[in-house]
Write a structure and sequence with these properties.
This protein is an alpha/beta fold. 31% of the residues lie in helices and 23% in strands.
Length: 606
């Protein structure tokens, strides 16, 4: 009997025994399991696989740190760092937690695809959070309870979620993708941080790849931190240095020869030496510590991205400012600084050139953009070539009442034009976008409805930074047609970067001598300005001239090109191969008429 009592006492004492004193990285190496559907390397977590992760995770265990800021490239493991912090606090230091994603949909996706597999496959976490499908579990996809705490996931666009119960741990993911304001309540990050204000041992985590200089939340937060950089020793001279893209070198047009050059001795590292050096690196602060630990990481530290792959991505991205900006943000983990906010219409008009009677050989397909005004339609037909090089082939103003059929019949004639290329190939408009956001929405719907099969689509412009060029179409409209949302700010960012390209090649815009000065004034009728809304910088396109139809129709033609979703460079390669290796001429064989074949004519729009 006494032995039974002693056994019960020992069990009771074990239940009240505090968990071992571990840092986040220690717990992760001991307990965390990576799930097969959420990781390319499933199984036991190893911090040494990407050693730089240790310092970031352990900052969350440092009592002197109140906020952790991670400004980094993509694909360096920051989402798994966030997950490890959550797992640690579920198992070791139970606390109420809030995870903020850019949107509610992204919060649900993270919970289902990242959080749920971790809770299922990490043994120490199994059973601590009940399955939301179980009876009386009290859990949902966005709210999970465990002994001593809970996890709430929400979107930065949901003010009610950001302003409810207090939490000790606040983790904000991809903060540069947050809206300027959560409804009318203000900055989402500030709202989330207020949730933890009553906890003396609070922890705030901000994670993100950066966006534009002067308008980046994560850059602003990093500038207020101690700005830690990861220094690695040279395999040859042992000099410690932070990795910089300027030290990567390769033979011209041979990315497979990429190596890293030591800033001290100049020795070239192989990729294997780079990865080994990272394993022996350490974080060093470069500014005064004020309870904010800041970490900056580029893709150069990633063990999953070889240098030759990074060079290939860079060589492809630098062809155009728009793609280079994405590369700078997502690989270097740095903000992009715009080279200019407007384009001079006179300088653009100076680039007019003589177009031959036939189309340039580089033109592979045609699209059109149509703007609907109260008394007219504005139409532009654009030719597209390799790397989005473009030619303005035709621009028309069709005067007439858009509520009557006559002007739409004129538009049909324009869109059915045939253009002959230098090699004799006939090109026609492959897709067209018609703006439906004006005063004649029903007329646009009526025109488009019977022509959707010919790739003539209705679109509606959507303002705001970060919107996709073309979003998912909806039929939830009175016309019951496919209505494509077009991110006009995104399109203008790309378009103005193309206007600044001075030499023919990727992104360059060609204009004929016949284009009027008014066309160029309209094409450059807007400029990018930075305004402050509730203390937060916001970039906006604003008119500098009253008329901007030429700019709008070019945006719509870009949208039509995007909807086609064609690999224009692959098309160019096929054209080149056909011209270099023309097929052998076949012997003519008399053909018998198919008795069931009719002689009717079918108009092709392709």
């Amino acid at each position: 009997m006494n032995s039974q009592i002693q056994t019960l006492v020992r069990k009771a004492l074990r239940a009240f025994r505090p968990p071992p004193d571990l840092k986040v990285s220690d717990w992760s190496d001991r307990e965390r399991k990576l799930s097969p559907e959420a990781s390319a390397e499933p199984g036991q977590w190893l911090t040494s696989r990407a050693e730089y992760q240790r310092g970031i995770m352990d900052a969350f265990s440092d009592p002197a740190v109140e906020m952790v800021v991670v400004m980094s490239s993509a694909q360096v493991g920051k989402t798994e760092i966030l997950n490890n912090v959550i797992g640690y606090h579920v198992a070791q230091d139970p606390s109420p937690m809030l995870v903020v994603q850019p949107t509610l949909d992204m919060a649900q996706t993270w919970s289902k695809d990242r959080l749920a597999p971790m809770l299922r496959d990490t043994p120490q976490l199994q059973g601590l959070v009940k399955d939301p499908r179980a009876r009386d579990s009290g859990n949902t996809t966005l709210h999970k309870i465990f002994p001593g705490g809970h996890i709430t996931a929400c979107g930065a666009n949901s003010p009610s979620s950001l302003a409810s119960r207090p939490v000790r741990i606040v983790l904000c993911d991809e903060v540069d993708r947050y809206p300027v304001s959560a409804g009318s309540e203000g900055d989402p990050v500030s709202l989330a941080r207020k949730r933890a204000s009553t906890f003396w041992n609070r922890r705030i985590g901000l994670f993100s790849t950066p966006t534009n200089k002067g308008n980046s939340r994560i850059e602003a937060a990093f500038e207020e931190s101690d700005k830690r950089l990861y220094f690695v020793p040279c395999p040859h001279c042992k000099h410690e240095q932070s990795l910089k893209w300027s030290s990567v070198s390769w033979e011209q047009d041979k990315p497979e020869t990429a190596q890293y050059a030591c800033e001290e001795c100049g020795a070239l590292w192989t990729d294997a030496e780079r990865v080994r050096a990272i394993r022996h690196g350490r974080w060093q602060a470069t500014a005064e510590f004020k309870r904010v630990a800041g970490f900056h990481l580029s893709g150069l530290y990633s063990p999953w991205t070889p240098l030759d792959a990074a060079v290939r991505e860079f060589l492809e991205a630098k062809k155009q400012p728009a793609t280079l900006r994405v590369w700078v943000n997502t690989y270097l983990g740095e903000t992009w600084e715009e080279q200019g906010e407007s384009v001079d219409d006179f300088q653009l008009a100076e680039r007019r050139e003589e177009f031959g009677p036939q189309l340039d050989q580089g033109i592979l397909l045609l699209t059109a953009g149509v703007d609907c005004q109260d008394d007219r339609l504005e139409v532009e037909i654009v030719g597209w070539g390799r790397d989005q090089e473009s030619w303005s082939l035709d621009y028309r103003t069709l005067y007439g009442d858009p509520s009557s059929p006559a002007v739409w019949q004129d538009l049909d004639s324009i869109l059915k034009q045939q253009f002959e290329r230098e090699d004799g190939k006939i090109l026609t408009v492959r897709a067209a976008c018609v703006d439906s956001g004006g005063h004649h929405t029903n007329s646009v719907y009526n025109y488009v409805r019977p022509r959707e099969g010919n790739r003539i689509f209705a679109i509606k412009g959507v303002g705001g930074e970060g919107k996709p060029l073309v979003g998912k179409p909806s039929r939830n409209n009175i016309g019951k047609i496919k209505l494509f949302p077009v991110g006009v700010d995104t399109a203008k960012d790309v378009l103005f970067s193309w206007m600044r390209i001075a030499e023919p090649g990727p992104g360059y815009m060609h204009f004929p001598h016949s284009r009027s000065d008014e066309y160029f004034r309209q094409l450059t009728a807007e400029k990018l300005v930075t305004r402050y809304h509730k203390g937060f910088a916001r970039r906006e396109w604003t008119k500098v001239r009253p008329r901007n139809e030429a700019l709008d129709v070019r945006v719509y033609s870009m949208a039509a090109f995007s909807i086609l979703n064609l690999n224009i460079n692959a098309m160019a390669d096929r054209e080149f191969m056909r011209h270099e290796n023309p097929p052998e001429p076949k012997q003519s064989v008399p053909q018998k008429r198919n008795p069931r074949q009719t002689g009717g004519f079918v108009q092709s729009w392709r």
